[in-house]
Amino acid sequence: MRLRLSDLRTESNRAVAKQKKSVEIKLDDLGDWRRTHYSSNLTPELDGQDCTVFGWIASIRHQGNITFIVIVDKDGLIQITAKKDEVGKDLYKKVQTLTTHTSIGVKGVLKAIPKAPNGVEVRPKEIKVLGFASVNPPIPLYGRKLPGLDKRLEIRAVDLRRPTAQAVFRIRQEALKAIREHLLKNGYHEIHTPKIISSATEGGAALFPLLFYDKEAFLTQSPQLYKEQLVMAFEKVFEIGPAFRAEQSRTLEHLSEFISVDVEEAYVDYRDAMDRLEAMIREVVGVIKSRCAKELAMLQYEPQLPATFKKFTYNEVLEILAEHGHKVEWGEDLSSAALAKLAEVNPSYYFIIDWPTQSKPFYIAQKKSDPKLSESFDLIFGSLEIASGGTRVSSRRVLEKKNPLRQIEQNWVEHRTEE
Amino acid sequence: MRLRLSDLRTESNRAVAKQKKSVEIKLDDLGDWRRTHYSSNLTPELDGQDCTVFGWIASIRHQGNITFIVIVDKDGLIQITAKKDEVGKDLYKKVQTLTTHTSIGVKGVLKAIPKAPNGVEVRPKEIKVLGFASVNPPIPLYGRKLPGLDKRLEIRAVDLRRPTAQAVFRIRQEALKAIREHLLKNGYHEIHTPKIISSATEGGAALFPLLFYDKEAFLTQSPQLYKEQLVMAFEKVFEIGPAFRAEQSRTLEHLSEFISVDVEEAYVDYRDAMDRLEAMIREVVGVIKSRCAKELAMLQYEPQLPATFKKFTYNEVLEILAEHGHKVEWGEDLSSAALAKLAEVNPSYYFIIDWPTQSKPFYIAQKKSDPKLSESFDLIFGSLEIASGGTRVSSRRVLEKKNPLRQIEQNWVEHRTEE
Known about the structure:
- Two copies of one chain form a homodimer.
- Chain A contains twelve helices and 15 strands.
- By secondary structure, the first copy, chain A, is α+β, with helices and mostly antiparallel strands.
- The longest helix of chain A is centred in the middle third of the chain and has 23 residues, at 163-185.
- Chains A and B meet through helix 5, helix 6, strand 6, strand 8 and helix 7 of A and helix 5, helix 6, strand 6, strand 8 and helix 7 of B.
């Protein structure tokens, strides 16, 4: 039987209650101490070896003349067992002053112990106190039941020590890595475009204005027009970086600042873009499943992929919604309520294609067969729009004609060499 | 003998002179045409195969009843040879209307020809005009002699078709990729921190103010304080993203917006940071040399690495400068002139360590042996500062004491749990 994270919860609470404010502790220097093992490197086979480990104290339990300390490092937990008759008076006294969330280094000997995390504990010879926690977080960090988001955000840096929080961040990192790998492997060139711009990209609204020296400027909503220009040299480009939108509605679907994955390619149309997106998502989900099995288990989530990403036209979607008693005026965007209704029919990934031309930006091409419709798509996951795209207008004349309506500065298009 | 880029230059100029403004050309649709080969995939062994290629016209040369078109795609050049008696009247007529920088697709047959780029040319059967260049860039894009930067920036999107410009971008991409690979491989977690902040990170100056809804906010100068908080959970983190500085001096060493590589690690000091930096740069330079040999040759540049990255203390640097007749007041930063002088002694990578505490941010630790000096470094390449860092202050009390001087909002440190 191994120590579980939930066992730490009571200990942590007890420690909080015991502690007094403003305890004075002299901090040790790191000096020449360097880590020899992360928690993930510890196995019973290392029994008898010397080690230096570091971490933050997750729990302390005093039991007669033995003190059990569990520290957490970036990979997990390590149990430190200090026996009074083994460590000597001075070190044992120091151990008694330690508090949860204090940062320590431990030099000691590894000992195989079935009950300890990873089956190993450390018998300390020396301990350094590198940071001292005189006040403990007002919320328990371990265990299943979480306090509200507001409380957690108040102490976000410490809150992120929670294993489930870390699992989310590790999956996020692997997802971005898999996206980048997929795009690089397929010949896309990674770019970084300016975030401070002199005019709007997607239309006039939703911009954050700033003072660039003595001039007004804005934060980019997307690298759209930059990447369109860059395909004229690089053909296939992508950017992973921040985008900024002064959204007026505060919902879970709207963020003022977010990391955006932008892809652009020459000599293809919106169907190729959808194929690329579907292939990329399939690969990313596969990678996450294999590289983050532990994290997914911790979050009790298993990503599902449909056999194909279905494609519904905007007109079909309006019919489906009408059948379900949800009326949408032709030309209107789909509300959160409409998307929630659609999620009942299609709970996973699907595309909505051929949106009304009037509802898409000026650079999206209209359909030859029906100019009221555009060669465009949104990718939906459940009730969430996660991507959108479309065929670009390639005629300079058409762009110039549509452009003034959107109040985009002329200089965005004046150096396009195509007609 | 193969066609050289410099040969294209004269052609390009001639084409510019010939062209009239506002030529009317009906654009073709991409339809179901898709590329079968990039220029890089073409080899004489493909003789006789069908192909579909795309690109922008780099040159057109009419020679009796034959027209030679060279197009450029993301990987290089492709020669298209249209013979009047082979392609038929209609297609030959269409070929005569083409202009340089026009974007075309070509379906045809590959033919091994020693003189063509890659030893292959395309004999066209059909050509689509996907974008038409009625005006050509006022500067030649090929050839060694470049026009001024201002002129090139005016038509930057087209200017980036220059092979040497592309070489710079490809090396840049590979460098960032190698940096990321090095850090991920060594257990660093990739993070993305907010770029809109409510207060300064490095001090009060050099910030761009913006309007965040109805509040004043700023663009981040660096992810410094965020990454320091995040090591409390992840221990080893890095971010590659934009940083913004309202620099008052406009020199080659100062940018208002740039991509910054930020690394942070717990339980180490500034010497470890220097070791990591040196190891990373050695790996990155090695990767560039092997993956970008072609691009380096094109730029006629060979990266050099010194046997070790020497470490000079700030005090030693002042002595060296004094010996060379360059006086710097103790505590002052090194001017561009001082760094240029040092570059004569150390033309490659070297560290300057132990800077005056007063000249470094509040979160940099002072040296135990001499509190006037700090555990800090700058990494210099020639006369350019390319990185800086230092040991962090780990005592909450010390941070709080130094903090007000720098006018950092209290909430940046109030939730640190360490003393």
